[in-house]
Structures are given as structure tokens and as C-alpha cells.
Amino acid sequence: MANPKITVIGSNMMDLITNINRMPRSGETIEAPDFDLGFGGKGANQAVAACKTGAEVVMVSRVGDGLFGREVIKNFDSHGIDTEYVKVVENTTSGVAPIFVDQDGNNRILIVKGANAHLKPEAIDQAKDKILNSDFILLQLEIPLETVYYAIEFGAENEIPVILNPAPAADLDFNYVKKASIFVPNETELETISGMPVDSLENIKKAAQSLLTKDLKKIIVTLGEKGSLLVSKEKTELIFAFKVDPKDTTGAGDAFIGSFATFYAESGDIIKAMKLANKYAAFSTLSTGTQKSFYTREEFEKEID
Ligand code: RIB
Question: Which positions bind K(+) (predicted)?
């Protein structure tokens, strides 16, 4: 079987990960136990997860002209991700993400877009030939919205299914968004986008179902330790999480989406792909860091054997 081909049109960031006992109050200085620098950005994370699970990945992205940008490109190259369309923006810093991980492994993330803000619709025209060869296009919202909409239209016109991860949540134009094949928010994003409460599973289902009235085709809500929820006109189905004791959940949603794209492209079976992606995401929480906590396909298969 040929490897799935996936194009990610999205962000990359340097993650500045600080483990904290608690957040400082205004005007207060406190000590934090640990710090780590790692490769992140929702687009890059999803690209690495798709690649590590066996897809051939093309990355369309922008980096700054400093040290971080060069390292980000080297990191993509080290995974075998196609970086022909990862371009350097002169006189601009790369995207960075200060991340605070608490003692329960939960995270709070700030992003500074930097060069990611320069990924314009023209980038899609430039990479057209490679994108046309893809089984899926993966999109997130850490790049300009005009580029996200252009990519959705490109996918729709060329019959390439688009998986849209609306993260971080934004005010969206559903005239474009409805053309994506699968919409994948987490609970917080679902709450912001639907304007409905997500404080119980029942309410999460209602909030996701409300998006069907905006003509979305399929919605997968990532629910962390509760699993993932598929909502379409035909069915609503909860896929339970694979239980683990998480150390750091940063990037788990990206691990889910990137691996899901590979598994779905391989089998065409959405429930099977969600079950596998739930497991892949769970394993990514067992060690610290974002991309470096993602298993290779071999490591993953050994675990699920
Ligand atoms: O989803 C996790 C990611 O969000 C981090 O890697 C950070 O860079 C932000 O983009």
C-alpha cells in the first residue's frame, strides 16, 4: 500500500516550555522547577505526527530569518518532511509559544505568530502541484484566516478533503468552513465557536450538533481524557480514550489530528482511525515536550500489539 500523502498548510513555533507549580500573581516572582525548548506550532506538530505514523508530508509554512527559523527547517528535514515550501521571511522572527505546564500535566499556551502571519494565499498557488497530489490537506488557525479560507476553497475545487482544526478559536465565516470535510475543535474551541456550554458530555454533543445547522459535514471533538466525539447528520458516536497517566498533554490534540489523517487515509474508516488516533494521542502525553513525545509508527505498533 502506498503511503498516504498529506499537505499541512500551517504554522510552526519554537515552544518555550516551563513546568510550573503555579502561575505567579501580578507583580510576583516565583521559581519554576523546569524549562525545555522544543519544536512546536500546531501545523508543524500535525505534520510531524502524520509523518511519524507513515505519511509523506509536504509542509507549507513560513519561518523567520534567525536561529529559530533555521532550526525549524532542519527539524522538518530530519523527519523527512518536504520543506520546499517552507520559506524564510526576511527581517522577521519565527513564531514562538511560551507554554506553562502544571503539575497535573495541563498546559496554558501563548502564541506569538511572527513569520506565520506572512503565510499568504499566494503560498498555496506556489505549492499547487504538490498540494494537488495530496490525499488530505490539514489546516489550523495560527496563520492568516484569508489563507485558511483560500486553502479550503482550493481543496473543495480540486476534490482534496480538508481537515480543519479551528485552533486557536476564531470568529469564522462558515461560507468557507462548511466546505471542509472534517472540522476538529477541542472542547474549548467548540464552546467559543458554537457559543454553547460544554460542561457535560450531553452539552458537548448539543454544541457539536448545533454546528450541523451551519452545514458542516463531519465534526470530531477532541475531548482529552474522555476520548473523541464524532458528530455527523447520520450519527453521534463517542470513542473512549485510551487511559494513561499523563505527564504533559501539550500537543496531544495535534498528535490526534496528524495521526488521524494518516490512519483515515490508509483505511477510509473514520471510527477505526479515531480509535487509533486516540491511542496515539494518549501515548504522546506520557513524556514531556511536544513533537518529541510523538511515537514513531514502529513504537506505536509495538505498544498496541
Ligand atoms: O497545540 C500545541 C501547540 O500550540 C504548541 O506546540 C504551541 O506551539 C502552540 O502552537
Answer: 248, 250, 284, 287, 289, 293
